[in-house]
Write a structure and sequence with these properties.
The chain is α/β, with parallel strands linked by helices and 372 residues long. Helix content is 28%, strand content 23%. It binds pyridoxal-5'-phosphate (PLP). Pyridoxal-5'-phosphate (PLP) binds next to helix 8.
Length: 372
């Protein structure tokens, strides 16, 4: 057992996801690339590269990581590019998608010099996502160009279209989205070479209908054989492939509510639990049950709302017990903060040979170096 706090990536589960993703790409004859925004543990990119070769970047740093650690130029999309960074981004990208016609017009001359395949993000104003925080098609969304803003002819230099409208979605959501995209923008397809269907395809979820996804993609490809199809999921790569281990440091009982005080923080180390919000699964715990020892989990930052509850356990918790939060890799590991200077969880790999390998340990200098 590694000292907590630590994130543990399970290589066997990770490879299972990668195997499935590669097999979908092969069967449907599409390109699937990794969205770094969801998963960027570059120490394991050598494993990723056994299955897929490319990645999508949403910033200069992610584009740098693509070239440096994946060994390939990025498919880049950012909501807005700056004059200061564009040249560097262009030198690190094979494809660049622009969020608006203004941005495309501004940077196309430079992109042309770097031989970039340029694309435009479209907003079909249709999404099955119900949480507004994750809905790129909410009314007034800043993301992508709507059909009304496009004429029948795309500007010269646009070779691709990109839409991202899904979030932890099913193949049936993609199917419905494609119908709308075709209805609204299908007349533009003959003018482009590639179509990027974004992320949000949770194809490694146990209930995801893989055969249906392949059918939908094949049908689409048969209709538009000249289009290179790209999917750029993130979560699906690390879905259920790792967890966050923590230790109970204290148990506080106030107003009849028992809180297990942990050496991890929801605010710093599991931010989506508070943002989305969603209740994570704790190994061996279950929904509050009468007669069972029941606790809130308390984070170790000073934010009053840094807690989540409740869970019941078979036995009362005690100081020193391990609490394991399941499925805590995708987005979590890239979104962490060092708020309060709380000790940052190490990153550990549980190898396919069942050995624990430390990938990264954080220290005071990591905290200090982010400020001056
Ligand atoms: C443009 C774009 N592509 C890909 C993704 C990855 O999505 P997911 O991790 O849900 O598969 C996102 C997520 O926000 C995104 O905004």
């Amino acid at each position: 057992m590694f000292p907590t706090p630590c994130y543990i990536l399970n290589e066997k589960d990770f490879r299972k996801n990668l195997t499935l993703i590669r097999s979908v790409a092969e069967q449907a004859d599409v390109q699937i690339i990794l969205a770094f925004k969801a998963f960027a543990l570059w120490s394991v990119f050598p494993i990723v590269k056994e299955y897929i070769t490319h990645s999508t970047a949403s910033s200069l740093y992610e584009a740098k990581l693509a070239v440096e650690q994946m060994g390939n130029k990025a498919h880049t999309y950012a909501p807005a590019y700056s004059d200061k960074e564009f040249d560097q981004i262009a030198s690190l990208s094979s494809h660049i998608t622009f969020n608006s016609l203004n941005q495309f017009q501004r940077f196309y001359p430079k992109a042309k010099k770097y031989n970039i395949s340029c694309g435009l993000r479209i907003n079909p104003q249709y999404s099955e996502v119900t949480t507004d925080l994750y809905n790129p098609c909410a009314v007034g969304s800043r993301l992508g160009v709507t059909a009304q803003q496009l004429s029948t002819q795309l500007p010269e230099g646009i070779e691709g279209l990109h839409f991202h409208t899904l979030c932890e979605s099913k193949s049936y959501d993609l199917e419905k989205t494609l119908t709308v995209v075709e209805e609204k923008m299908g007349h533009l397809f003959s003018q482009i070479k590639w179509l990027n269907m974004g992320g949000g395809h949770l194809l490694t979820h146990k209930e995801y209908d893989i055969e249906h996804l392949i059918t939908v993609l094949k049908r689409f490809k048969a209709k538009y054989p000249y289009l290179h199809i790209i999917l750029e999921p993130g979560s699906a790569f690390a879905w259920q492939a790792g967890c966050l281990h923590s230790t109970v440091l204290d148990i506080v009982d106030n107003d009849g509510i028992k809180t297990a005080m942990l050496d991890v923080s929801f605010a710093c180390h599991m931010p989506d639990c508070l943002e989305m919000p969603y209740k994570p699964t704790i190994r061996g715990a279950y929904e509050p049950t009468k007669g069972k020892p029941t606790y809130r989990m308390g984070g170790n930052s000073c934010l009053s709302g840094d807690f989540y509850g409740d869970w019941s356990f078979d036995k009362p918790l005690k100081v020193g017990d391990t609490i394991i939060f399941e499925d805590m890799l995708h987005y979590t590991t890239v979104k962490t903060t060092m708020f309060n200077g709380v000790t940052h969880p190490s990153i550990v790999l549980l190898t396919k040979n069942n050995k624990l390998k430390l990938l990264k340990e954080f220290c005071y200098e990591d905290y200090k170096s982010r400020m001056s």
